[in-house]
Amino acid sequence: MRPPREAVVRWEVALLAGVVLLGLLLRIWNVDQNLPLVYNIDESARFVPDAASYFDTRLGFRELVNPPGMMGLLALVDQVWFRPQGLSPSEGLAQHPTQAYLLGRLVVVALSTAAIPVLYLAGRQLLGRIAAMVAAGLLAVAFLPVAYSRLALSDGPTVLFLALGILGAAWILRDGGRRGFVTVGLAVGLAAGFKYNAGIVLLVGLAAAALRIPSDGRGPVLRASLLMGAVALVSFLIADPYVLIDPHEMWRAIEYQQRWASGGRYVGEPMTNGFAFYAWAASWGIGWLPLLAAVAGAALLIRRRWQVAVLLLPMVALYLLVMGGQDRFFARWLLPIVPVMCLTAGFAVQEAVGLLRGRATDGPRAGWRRPAALAAAAALALALAGQSLVHSAHSVAIAGRADTRTVLREWMLDHVPARDGVVLESMSPLRWMPTFDGRHEWWSLTRWSIYHSIPAVQRRDRKRYPRQTRTKAGFSSWVQILYPKLIDEFERYGYCWVVTSSYQAGRAARTPGLVPQAVRYYRELARRGTLVWQVNPFSTDNPSGRPYGPLSAPVRYQIDRQATSYELDYERSGPMVSVYRLRGGRCADPGPVVPDAPVD
């Protein structure tokens, strides 16, 4: 018979394997959603396309706003995958976009899933088995880590490097050996090379080193810390060679990102306090109960495990202090501190279980002490994971259905004549645009005449609408170019089809004080245009029985929750899309209308 201790270890490994398998399933199920169409802006425009030309084209500051570590990794994967097919990565992306994007997503799935056992090992070293298992379980199902591990973005892999940094710090705290210092250095360099702000994981290594000084002495700790710094520098240079290749562009990119984050309120986000926003984001990004447990666990750490508290909590405090003070904030920016939140929540569960175990030390209850404690741990873990598990599973399940923008594309192919003028709101990438020959290449002639701007109108209206006429219309600024008189110009020049989405109209409705002209534009459009068709991703129908107006989607806009399909009301991903047909001017002709707008 095997010793009881070995049996416990075996079950521990089996349970961890089950947790990792669950995390993998949530990340890989329907991971090919919508391909070859890619609707996430960063995924479509940045990482995979930049990886395809990584070894051929020098990146500029706009590409370096995201550090190039992820691009470099995907570039290597592309070389391995496409070269045997006789294609360069750029040719592979152009001819086989589904393969290119799916490769990127699978790399992210693998790295983000690896974060689960790494966090478990870190938690086991620092806190104990129960805390570690609960932390791993939370990371496996928490909504934000799952949602951003399913796209070819750098957020998912960054969580792995953060967990690795915590593991290295745990090793430093335990024995002060080189293994821990090297691990932290590697994690810091890679974390910063994938996501600049994730380099804050350096603080856990420095805290662990400081805690070793009383037992090891300043000299040995200083030398080991220098080794950690050297490894961090080398790994960062490997992940981000532009520090050496073009430091000017890299710093320009960092400055640009800082200016953008401090560039005033983001249209569509009603919250103005970053600290309140990140608390709210955590309440659904990992869940209400995990958030409360994380706060309680942090307090318990300070009281009962002060060294671990010194290791973990300063990083969280400093990160929130910096990020919460910005003008703009997004839920995914919370991800660098999610591993610590999972650990402190796990510690709260472990302490609660310990309290139960301590109450059953004698008498008839002593025999079921251990089973009762384990049952309590399982019940608490399931309670903590429940909210995220439901929302993650729902979001993953509906990812297998066609996005509303894909549905729109098929409808327009059948109902909007070729070359007709279309005002298409910014909600889709270039590859979305159908072509005359049915190909997907972005350089092919597009099927419809898409409105961009009319220079003569811009010059005429510059004084009355200075903000609207000087703003370039991208996703973030589309609602800032809208004003009611544009509808007159659409009718005058023949842009008779107007396509709106809750991603844009919803932003205006959520913060009408920031874009009052856009609100008036949407109301005028609903009054003057005929609603021809609408696709609603939500299960809630209008109580009046009529279609929803552009400003009245049943789920209020919030960029992070709509981009990730968090709400259970979603039946498919994407915005609510409405197609209007204008009736005045040249649009009074019910047949095809080709625009005749002048160009400069």
UniProtKB/TrEMBL annotation:
Molecular function GO terms recorded: mannosyltransferase activity; pentosyltransferase activity
Key words, A-Z: Cell membrane, Glycosyltransferase, Membrane, Transferase, Transmembrane, Transmembrane helix
Membrane topology: Multi-pass membrane protein
ArnT-like N-terminal domain ranges (all copies): 21-209
Subcellular location: Cell membrane
The keyword Ligase belongs to this UniProt entry's keyword annotation: no
Name used for this protein in its record: Glycosyl transferase family 39
Taxonomic source organism: Patulibacter medicamentivorans
